């Protein structure tokens, strides 16, 4: 993934020397990096809506641990990919975190290539998620422009019902269905039923079945 100013990597680790080494490595590959020496400082300033990126968390830190920080971020609905840094004794904990949605973990000591591969993969996932989120927001905005009747037609169209069946369902003429269907398709910004179905299904999956 090509680094850009819109991409931010947050590092949360209480080991200053380790933070400095990660910053040097990542900035040498043109990534924007922000460091935090404890979880509370990170939470105070984290604004995920302003950029896209990933998090590198030490799994065990004084005060709020990396794992506790991750659980707090989950509770807040954060979906940035998280890479845990762990010592040998904390590997089982990191594995459990991955099972709960963390993106990856690296066991110390690790080589630079392993970290860069993990970061690049996490940023690819973040970019994909950002694109999906943007498309879902566009779909939601367009859905809100539909009239009640246009929404009723949409629901039946994505169920695969023909115009005659929709007309019978709603107690209106086929021509009226066609008129509502045309306006609905225009407002949704789609050219075919396949596009409509894909757009709405992807939106509902993003929203968890909303």
UniProtKB/TrEMBL annotation:
Please give the Gene3D superfamilies that the UniProt record associates with this protein: 3.40.50.2300, Winged helix-like DNA-binding domain superfamily/Winged helix DNA-binding domain (1.10.10.10)
Matches recorded under SUPFAM superfamilies: C-terminal effector domain of the bipartite response regulators (SSF46894), CheY-like (SSF52172)
Could you tell me the keywords of this UniProt record? DNA-binding, Phosphoprotein, Transcription, Transcription regulation, Two-component regulatory system
Any GO molecular function = DNA binding
Residues of the Response regulatory domain: 8-123
Q: Which Pfam families is this protein grouped with?
A: GerE, Response_reg
Domain named HTH luxR-type is located at: 139-204
InterPro entries the record matches:
CheY-like_superfamily, Sig_transdc_resp-reg_C-effctor, Sig_transdc_resp-reg_receiver, Tscrpt_reg_LuxR_C, WH-like_DNA-bd_sf
Positions where 4-aspartylphosphate occurs in the chain: 58
> Could you tell me what this protein is called?
LuxR family two component transcriptional regulator
